[in-house]
């Protein structure tokens, strides 16, 4: 570094030569040096002030942006737990085949407490007990004051209850948003829907999981976030379901039955348009599972699917259909129907000890519901072929439906298919199956012999099943079943304008200690309509019915299940777009009403 001297020699000598004071030169140089130093210091200060100003500007800009973000965000309650798996709260809606809501979600709130934030736990406990009568004020007070940091008070609140809790004004009471499952139609189709409950829970959300019915069977589909916006469309028709449940409930009361079930099925697609089981329940307030007594007495028990019954004479048409398909008989073939029939140590009787023999045509075996005639036909077929045919019809397997209860409804089948099993199975005894299986088997006959698989999901196209019987055999069977209604055991099902075909079945219920109870029966009527071109199958079952309008109690299906089914068809056929066919009658004639035969 080169420094300029304060007293340069040349200038000093020059000043002395001119007679000037040399000290002035030193003072001038000192002042000049100070000016340079001041300029450098000023420059450094200005740079520092500029950097400080930029720093303050950036800091306040960040603070302002953050405050704006916070002001624009939605306030939420503080979480009480840290990390973990995120709770999936979304659940897809369930619709009927016409797009009407069967199950949806509703935003509600839960109530929880953080006792360390509470001002007056005693007052809060007293007020909460007044709002929620099921809560005990003393117990709630102990929980508020025992040192815990968090506790649930109520999982679901109504808007009115939420407002009342707000009015308590204690800062330690918090509300957590959550979705709950709502069934706007109450008891309608309750066994199909099943119900839902809360799974994993947090203060800001709760997982909704299926507990029964289709809600549980298709739980993964309904909870899939990728499909939460796509409703699940069922084959159920809400209008038909409401009408069938109404008629079925009235019929159950009139026939003094302990339970009832009805299934309405499309014979071509297998879609179930209505599935009802009574007594029913409200899935919004699903009752607890019974731990004592007969499970079938619980309203949660689905008689249409879970019920496994001996379905009586409704099975006779299967023996006839198989025998005709094998070429063993035709509708006019005469078979031995002389009753009673003795087979080893067993005696096969007709209902009320009738004897329709010595010979009956195959058509009359169905129309008069002859046990002995059906048994003779079964022996023509043989046990091995009979068992294979019933299995092909789906009667020996659990019902196939999108319900979690369906796989557990296993058919009760003897381990050894002996000749006596062949005999009794021909008229629906000795084996037990689900009513849903029966509906699918009758649909197979009604549609011309193509196997039907029942389903509760609506679809525009389905692949056809395999052929089980020929179209000619199926057509002949429908004609026989039509005669059951016009001349046989189901004349009360002759609905004007709608040709109904079907078969009755009265089966005594087994006693726990063995044998059968003649005063307790399962009555079934399996119908198809319209008979000239069947489109639908209706199965109606009554559990322990007894018709008491006459001098003698009547327990046969012809007096109990048949009139209930007839009223259902009368009610729903117009709703389904079926036009009544008016038959011409003589103006001066009288129409005779024939009572149903007593045979089943």
Q: N- to C-terminal separation?
A: 129 Å
What fraction of residues sit in β-strands? 15-25%
The helix count comes to: 17
Number of beta-strand segments: 16
- CATH superfamily membership of the largest domain, which one? DD-peptidase/beta-lactamase superfamily
CATH architecture of the largest domain: 3-Layer(aba) Sandwich
Biggest β-sheet, characterized? 5 strands, mixed
Output the radius of gyration.
42 Å
Mean pLDDT: 89
Structural class: alpha+beta
CATH topology of the largest domain: Beta-lactamase
The CATH class name of the largest domain reads Alpha Beta
Helical content stands at 25-40%
Q: Tell me, briefly, the overall form.
A: elongated
Low-confidence stretches: 77-84, 585-592
Domains, number: 3
């Amino acid at each position: 570094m080169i420094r300029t001297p304060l007293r340069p020699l040349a200038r000093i000598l020059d000043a002395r030569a001119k007679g000037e004071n040399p000290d002035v030169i030193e003072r001038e140089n000192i002042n000049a040096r100070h000016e340079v130093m001041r300029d450098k210091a000023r420059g450094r200060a200005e740079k520092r002030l500029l950097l400080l100003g930029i720093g303050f500007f950036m800091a306040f800009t960040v603070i302002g942006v953050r405050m704006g973000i916070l002001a624009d965000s939605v306030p939420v309650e503080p979480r009480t737990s840290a990390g973990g798996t995120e709770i999936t709260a979304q659940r897809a809606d369930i619709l009927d085949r016409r797009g009407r809501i069967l199950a949806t979600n509703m935003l509600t709130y839960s109530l929880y407490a953080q006792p360390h934030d509470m001002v007056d736990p005693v007052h809060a406990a007293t007020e909460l007990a007044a709002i929620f009568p099921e809560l005990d004020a003393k117990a709630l007070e102990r929980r508020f004051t025992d040192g815990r940091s968090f506790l649930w008070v109520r999982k679901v609140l109504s808007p009115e209850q939420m407002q009342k809790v707000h009015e308590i004004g204690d800062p330690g009471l918090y509300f957590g948003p959550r979705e709950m499952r709502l069934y706007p139609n109450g008891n309608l189709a309750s066994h199909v829907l099943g119900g839902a409950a809360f799974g994993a829970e947090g203060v800001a959300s709760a997982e909704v999981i299926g507990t029964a019915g289709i809600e549980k069977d298709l739980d993964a589909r309904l909870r899939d976030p990728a499909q939460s916006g796509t409703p699940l469309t069922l084959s159920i028709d809400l209008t038909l379901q409401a009408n069938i449940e109404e008629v079925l409930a009235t019929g159950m009361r009139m026939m003094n039955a302990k339970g009832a079930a009805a299934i309405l099925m499309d014979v071509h697609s297998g879609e179930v348009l209505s599935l009802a089981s009574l007594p029913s329940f409200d899935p919004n307030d699903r009752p607890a599972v019974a731990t004592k007594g007969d499970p079938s007495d619980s309203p949660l028990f689905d008689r249409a699917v879970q019920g496994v019954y001996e379905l009586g004479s409704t099975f006779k048409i299967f023996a006839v259909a198989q025998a005709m398909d094998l070429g063993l008989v035709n509708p006019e073939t005469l078979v031995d129907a002389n009753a009673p029939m003795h087979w080893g140590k067993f005696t096969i009787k007709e209902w009320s000890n009738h004897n329709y023999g010595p010979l009956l045509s195959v058509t009359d075996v169905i129309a008069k519901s002859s046990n002995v005639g059906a048994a003779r036909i079964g022996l023509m077929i043989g046990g091995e072929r009979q068992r294979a045919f019933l299995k092909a019809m789906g009667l020996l397997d659990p019902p196939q439906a999108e319900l979690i209860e369906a796989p557990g409804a296993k058919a009760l089948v003897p381990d050894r298919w002996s000749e006596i099993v062949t005999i009794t199975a021909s008229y629906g005894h000795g084996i037990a199956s689900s009513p849903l299986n029966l509906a699918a088997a009758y649909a197979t006959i009604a549609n011309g012999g193509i196997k039907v698989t029942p389903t509760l999901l609506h679809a525009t196209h389905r692949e056809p099943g395999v052929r089980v019987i020929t179209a000619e055999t199926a057509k002949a069977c429908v004609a026989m079943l039509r005669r059951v209604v016009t001349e046989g055991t189901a004349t009360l099902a002759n609905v004007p304008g709608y040709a109904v075909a079907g078969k009755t079945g009265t089966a005594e219920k087994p006693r726990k200690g063995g044998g059968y109870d003649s005063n307790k029966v399962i009555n079934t009527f399996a119908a198809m309509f319209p008979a000239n071109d069947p489109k639908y199958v209706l199965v109606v079952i009554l559990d322990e019915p007894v018709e008491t309008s006459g001098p003698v109690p009547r327990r046969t299906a012809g007096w109990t299940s048949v009139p209930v089914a007839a009223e259902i068809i009368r009610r729903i056929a117009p709703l389904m777009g079926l036009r009544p066919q008016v038959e011409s009658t003589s103006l001066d004639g009288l129409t005779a009403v024939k009572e149903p035969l007593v045979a089943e």
